[in-house]
Amino acid sequence: MIVCPACKHRNPEDAEVCEACGENLEDFLYRACPACGALNPAENVFCHRCLERLKGAAPEAAEQPPAAEERMTEGEETLAETTEKEEESIPSFLSEEAEEAEVAAEEEPPLEEEPAETLPPFIETERREEPLTREEEPLAEKRPPSEEQTTETEQAPAPPDEQAPETEEGEEVLPQIATHPLEGIEDGLPLEVGVSLPHRADPLSSEEPTEEERADAELLRRIAEEGAPLQEAPSKAEGKEPQPLSRLGRVLLHLMVLLAALAPFFTGGQTAHWVLPRRDIGGLVDMTSTLSVHTPVLVSFDYSPSYAGELDPLALALVRQLASRSVPIVAMSTKPEGIGVAEKICATVAGEMEDYRYGEDYAILGYLSGQEAGLRTLKKGVGYAFKKDHVQHRALSELPVTSGIDSVADMEHVIVLSDENNIVRRWIEQVRRGDIVLLHALVSTRIEPLLVPYEQAGQLETLIGGAYGAAEYEKASGMEGMAARTVDADIFLFLVMLLIAVITNVVYVSKE
Amino acid sequence: MQTVINALVHLSPATVEAVGIWFAALLTLAVLSFILGDNPFFRLAEYLFVGIAAGYAASLAWSNVLWPRLRLLLTDPGTWWYYGLFFALGMCLLARGIKPISALGNLPLGVLFGTGAALALGGVITGTLVPQLQVSFLSLSPADYGQGLIGWAHAIDALLLVVGTITVLSVFHFSAPEDETHKGIGYRLLEILQGTGRKVIMIGFGALLAGATLSFFAILKSRLVFLYDWLARFVNVGL
Q: Which residues have C-beta within 8 Å of that of residue B28, sequence separation ≥ 6?
C-alpha cells in the first residue's frame, strides 16, 4: 500500500501515480524487506528493522534536472569561482598539502564508482540543488519566496498535467523534493531513512585572512608538524604577576605574622594576666572540681597529631586538672592517630605526678572503629566496644578504673577533644541522645563556629576552642602552663590583623 | 639484622627521646622549608607522615579491633560464633580485588552502607534537625530573658538569630517573577531578604576563615616553641 503524500489516498502496491490526485508515487514506494518483511521507504538502502540490504531499493535515478549553468544568471558568482578565490587565500602550507593530495590522487588508480542505481533519489535531489550560487542561498533563507517559487511549491503536488510549469525557455522543471519523503504521512509507521542526509559545508570566506588568522594557521602548522613530547610539560600557574607593591605587602604581612608568633620569646607571657575566662569555661572547671573520685570521666582524644600544636595545651590542661582532683580518666579515640596522642598526654601527666598510675587513675581503652555504628555500640555497653584495654591488654573488669563501668551512662561526663566537627556531631547524635550523659567539646578554633548552635541548643554543656581557650582554662583552673605563657602571640596577632584591616581599608577608601 | 633490632630494643629511654626530638626537629624544618618552594626535604617529610600514619592506623586496626575478636572466636567459638559471620563478610570484602569473584564484595558493602546510612539518618533527624528546629522558635520579648539591659540584649540576640535564619533560607529560594517588568511586592521583598541573607552567609564564612587562621597560627606558634626548646637544648649541650 502506498499512501499519497499529497492527498493521503491509499493506493495499491503497484501504483505509479496516485489514483485520486495523480501525484507521481515513484519516490514514495515502500519496499518490503526480503528478510523480515518490514516496510521501508524507497530510498532506504538497508532495512530499518533488521539492517538487511534492500536490493533494488533505490529506484532509477530521476530525470536529470536542468543544468546548473542554465539556472544561473549573468553576473552571479559560481561556487567554482569562489573556490578558486578561496584557494588563493589558503595558507601556503595548506595549499602544499592540497597539491600533494592531488598528486597522490592522480597516481592512485581511480576507485570504482558506485553504480548510479544504488544512490537513493533524495541524494540525487541534493545533488541537483548543489550548483546553486552563493548569493542565492542566503537570499533564499531570508526573503520570502518569490512568486515563481511559490507557484512551483504550490504546484508541486498537483497532477502531472498541471505541475509542469514551463520556464521561459520552455523547459519543464521537475518538482524539487527538499523535504523528507515521509513528511505529511501521519498514520504511517515511524520509519527512518537508512542513510543520513549529507550536510553541505558552509562556504569558505572569500576575504583575505587577517593577521590573527595567519598567526593561528601558523600555530596550527607548528602543532601539526612538531613531535609529541615524551613527558607532560610541567604545569605553570597562569595569572597576573603580582605588582611589586602587593608583593611587598604580602612579604610584610608574613613577617608581621611571624613576629607575632615569636612574640612570647620576647615578652615572656606578660599579657597572661589580661586573659579573662569565659563563664562556661569556669563552669567546666567548677564541674571537674566537684566530681566524685569514684566516677570516671570519659575523654575521647579525637584529633590527629597535625592539630597537636593547638589542642595539646587544652588536653594537658584538662588532664592535669582532673588528675589533680583524683578524678579517674577513661581515654579512647575514634581516630586511629588519636590513640598515640592519648598515650602521650597521659604519659606526660603521669610523669609530672608520681602517684598517677595506669589502671588505677587512668586507662586507655583504644581505638573505636565504625564511626556511627561504633559509637552506638559504645552506648550499648563499653564491654561491647572494647574487649581489652590498649596498653596492658587486660580485660576491662580487671582494671580498677574500669571495673565498675558497664555503659557510658556510668561515667556521666564525656569530654571530646576533636579537630573535626563531624566527630563531635556524631557524639551528639549517637551517644548524647536521650540525655544519658553530659557532653563537653574542646575543639580546634577552626570548627568552633560550626558547633556553636549545638552549644546554644544545650546539646553541648561546654564548648572551648583552641589555644586561647586553653589559656582561659589554665587561668580558670589556676594551673598556668604553656598556653598561658604563649598567649602573647595571640594578642599580637589580633593587633596585626587590626592594623592590616585599618590600613587596607584606608588605602581602599582613598583610592575610591 | 637481629643485632640491629636488639640494639634498638635495648636503647635507653633518654636516648630514644633525644633521637626522637632531633628527628622531629629536622622534620619540622623540612616541612617549614616549603616556604622556599617544593623541595625533596618537604616531600620526604610529607611521605613519611602519610606512610607512618597509614601504617599506624593499620596496626591499630589489627591490635585493637581484629585480633581481640579473632582470639575470642578461636578460643570460644560457641559463645562468639557471630564474630565468624563478621569475619566472613570481611573476607568477602577482600574479594573486591579479584575480578572473577568480585561480586561477593557487594554483600558486605550493602550491609556497611545500609547500616551506616540508617544510623546516620536517624541520628541527624533526632540529634540535629529536630533539636535545632526546636531552639529556632525563639521569643523576641525582652521580658522573657530578664530585667533591664540583659533582657534586651538577649532579645536582640534572638532577633538576629531569627532574621539570620530566615534570610539565609531565603537565599536558597530560586524563583523568577512572572513579569520581569512589573515585579510584585512579594518578589521585591524576597530580593531584599536574599540580599541580606547573602551578607549573613559572608559573615559566617568570614568567621570560619578567621577560626582557621587562628587554628593554623596556634600550630605555627607551637612549632616555633618546639624549635626554640630544641635549639636551647642543643646550644646547652654544645656549650
A: B223, B226, B227
